[in-house]
Amino acid sequence: MKPLVAVDNGFFYTPTHPPHSTTPTSPPPAKVFAVKKLILPIQGDKDRKLRLKEVDALRSLAGCDHILQLINNWEESNNLYIQTEFCEEGNLNDFLKEVGAKGRLDDFRIWKIMLEMTEGLKNIHLAGFAHRDIKPSNVFVGFDGTLKIGDFGLATSLREAPGAGFDLDGDREYLAPEALRSEIDTPVDIFSLGLIMLEIAANVKLPENGATWTALREDDFSEIPVLTQIGDTVQRDAEGMPLDETERSLNILDNDGAAPKSGRRNYILRSGARQSGDIFGLHRTGSSRKTELQQPPLFMSDPNHCSSLDTVVRRMLAAVPMLRFTALDLLQLEALTWVSHRRRAGATVFEGNWGPGDEVIEPSSLDTEMTDV
Description:
Layout: E1 5-8, E2 11-14, E3 31-37, H1 45-60, E4 70-76, E5 79-85, H2 92-100, H3 107-126, E6 129-130, E7 139-141, E8 147-149, E9 156-157, E10 163-164, E11 183-184, H4 187-201, E12 204-205, H5 210-215, E13 251-252, H6 288-291, H7 309-316, H8 327-331, H9 334-342, H10 363-368
Parallel strand pairs: 12-13
Antiparallel strand pairs: 1-2, 2-3, 3-5, 4-5, 6-9, 7-8, 10-11
Helix pairs in contact: 3-4, 3-9, 4-7
């Protein structure tokens, strides 16, 4: 292993030239990695085997799309270190905080996030694992806006011990109802993804407990707004941020389920402001209206459509695990198939409210696309 030199808070680089080189020329740029140090020291062989399950899961997913890639792992002073690739744009939670401060994310990026996360979950599930801790802070964003699922500390091999008997863990905001009964299988990850999509599409902060928390796990969606923005044409800048300040609309679902006197939920705003630029030049000033789709497909405008956010998310949040979509089911939906053909950049990159226009889509792609626009 090459020597690691600390940069900042767990981020390291490996020198690309020998540490004692006397070559007078400037060294090439260092390669940056992320290194995770587990908090508690290893407590014997049994504990070591348990902790190495995260490494085993990452190793099983080597080369898989939308998965944070393992570089190396080692023990030092009875501590386990896990070295992975470094994602320059942080994590999805930070991205959503920045965007949510100014308004709901555009539909095309909402669907691209679902697409890339579902592709990652497909690979995890086909490899025989349940992640068990799917949440925005465990989804990392590369320099090109591509999403990668990471932090496999709770990942469970379903081939070794399927069914019940697992310890309850993970963030309560994204916890599936059957996890409360220690029943773990791939549907727990689909439920967590469904809550993430609800959080993004409604621009809400999910509750950690209370009546609304319970209702979301009992097929009661009476407190949830319509997720499909009918006829919504928000004017956005080159980074996808709403130009009209009145578009700010982050809601919080009350933990205790109590509604204010107005009969509506209490509303708050996320903090922060999106800083990254239009790195792909997909939304240039003066030509933006020519490079984005002018009318949304039906699934982005009709909440009753079989592939609308409302229909899909509710199915993902079904209280009975076997009634939820699988990752493969989701990828075969009309909406995700359409988005997969039309997108030209990573999930967090703005390509227009409803995606890039036909003039930036290759003819061969247009021939095979859905035509419900």
